Amino acid sequence: MKKQLNVAIIGCGAISGIYLENITKTFRDVRLLGVCDLIRERAEKAQEKYAVPKLYETMHDAFADPEVDIILNLTRPYEHFDVTSGALLAGKHVYTEKPLGATFDEGEKLTKLANEKGRRICGAPDTFLGAGIQTCRKAIDDGWIGTPIGAAAFMICHGHETWHPDPAFYYQFGGGPMLDMGPYYITALINLLGEIKGITGVTKSFFSERTITSKEHFGEVVKVECPTSYVGILHFTSGAVGTLHTTFDVHYTTQARLEIYGTAGTLICPDPNTFGGPVTLIRPENKAPQELPLLFDYKENSRALGLDDMAASILAGRDSRADNQQLLHALDVMTSFERSNEAGAYVPLRTTYERREAMRSGRPAGVL
Questions:
Q1: At what angle do helices 324-343 and 104-117 cross, to 10 degrees?
Q2: 298: phi > 0 → left, psi -120 to 50 → alpha, else beta; which?
Q3: pLDDT value at 364 more than 90
Q4: What is the rounded CA–CA span in Å between residue 29 and residue 310?
Q5: Least C-beta-crowded within 10 Å: which of 1, 156, 196, 238?
Q6: 186-215 burial, b for 16+ CB within 10 Å, e for fewer?
Q7: Are 18 and 301 in contact (CB under 8 A)?
Q8: CA–CA separation, 220 vs 175, rounded Å?
Q9: What is the rounded distance in angstroms from the CA atom of residue 339 to the CA atom of residue 344?
Q10: Which residues contact 365 (CB under 8 A, 6 or more apart)?
Q11: Could you tell me if 43 and 12 are in contact, meaning their C-beta atoms sit under 8 angstroms apart?
Q12: pLDDT tens digit string along 253-269?
């Protein structure tokens, strides 16, 4: 019986570094077998730095390798569908960076294909598996804020063109703050409060062009082809009501906020784009807000935690925590903001969602 599953990475861009680091040095249920990138030099650097056994000329070479169990899709959002579908057709499991697809239709097609092939799709974000959000989940489930009645989530900034080495795709099809940053907030919210049944949303773009000021493409002008501001109401099946505001159009110093409101108190959660961070409880009997201890493992940047959980769950025959049901429900939420904006009305979601098992603490590091 296998003790590890072999992984091939497709896409060795900016996000790949932390995956390479954690797969090779932290997690034990996966083994990095090969890398591939359209820019061969990127793959060569990854292979050399991390002693990767194989370098594939094309993604199809990785798909055809009988030793590969899981394809790790780290390509750009508008490329996710082609890479994931190609891997599934070749009989591989897939772990994909967020989002599952650039449209809900893509997500549905991938889900259908995975079911037909008997393969799993799991994916980012996996930050909800970290110490911060898992501690929040336990506090809520244990009744520390009473019955949850609401939530507020904000991701406010002026876009990524000032720092990202290749930011143009954030303003193209598949980009924007919702598909880029929304997954962190929505995934955290549904893990804390459960299924979302409908959306009332507004979407806008306040700038038709963006000028890149990061050094790699300094001075280049990018046309904005997607909404860059989303504001809406999340209607949870439980009866709780949340608000979400995510934008690339606003100058602000503190970009992230996530709060859960209950009948007996309020929980101020850490930035859902992190694995740790402070968890603060506000209750009326306390004189001041209290910072709660983090009760779970993985406080640092642990990207690939969801990938390792996927491998461990396949080996053990259990459900994966960052599974396709979660990915598709989050994609449904994100794409329904535009549906609601176009309809000028509340829209019901097309998917259902059930929380998977919470994390366990005290296990050996890197073993799920």
A1: 150
A2: left
A3: no
A4: 9
A5: 1
A6: bbbbbbbbbbbbbbbbebeeeeeebebeee
A7: yes
A8: 18
A9: 8
A10: 26, 297
A11: yes
A12: 887 899 999 999 999 99
Of 193, 181, 125, 126, the C-alpha closest to 154 is 181
Amino acid occupying residue 18: I
Q: Mean pLDDT score of the chain, rounded to an integer?
A: 96
pLDDT at 141: 98
SS3 labels along the chain: CCCCEEEEEECCCCCHHHHHHHHHHCCCCEEEEEEECCCHHHHHHHHHHHCCCEECCCHHHHHHCCCCCEEEECCCHHHHHHHHHHHHHCCCEEEECCCCCCCHHHHHHHHHHHHHHCCCEEECCCHHHCHHHHHHHHHHHCCCCCCEEEEEEEEECCCCCCCCCCHHHHHCCCCHHHHHHHHHHHHHHHHHHCCEEEEEEEEECCCCEEECCCHHHCCCEEECCCCCEEEEEEEECCCCEEEEEEECCCCCCCCEEEEEEECCCEEEECCCCCCCCCEEEECCCCCCCEEECCCCCCCCCCCCHHHHHHHHHHHHCCCCCCEHHHHHHHHHHHHHHHHHHHHCCCEECCCCCCCCCCCCCCCCCCCC
The model's pLDDT over 292-337, given as tens digits with 9 standing for 90+, comes to 999 999 999 999 999 999 999 999 999 999 999 999 999 999 999 9
Topology adopted by domain 5-126+302-322: Rossmann fold (3.40.50)
Question: C-alpha 130: how far from its chain's center?
Answer: 12
The domain locations on the chain are: 5-126+302-322, 127-298+332-348
CA–CA distance, 197 with 39 (Å, rounded to integer)? 42
Output the CATH code of domain 127-298+332-348: 3.30.360.10
Q: Tell me how far apart the alpha carbons of residues 200 and 234 are, in angstroms, rounded to a whole number.
A: 7
Q: By the 8 A CB rule, do 82 and 71 touch? A: no
So what's the pLDDT on residue 1?
Answer: 66
| 115 vs 4: CA distance, rounded Å | 23
Q: Which two tokens stand for residue 339?
A: 């549906």
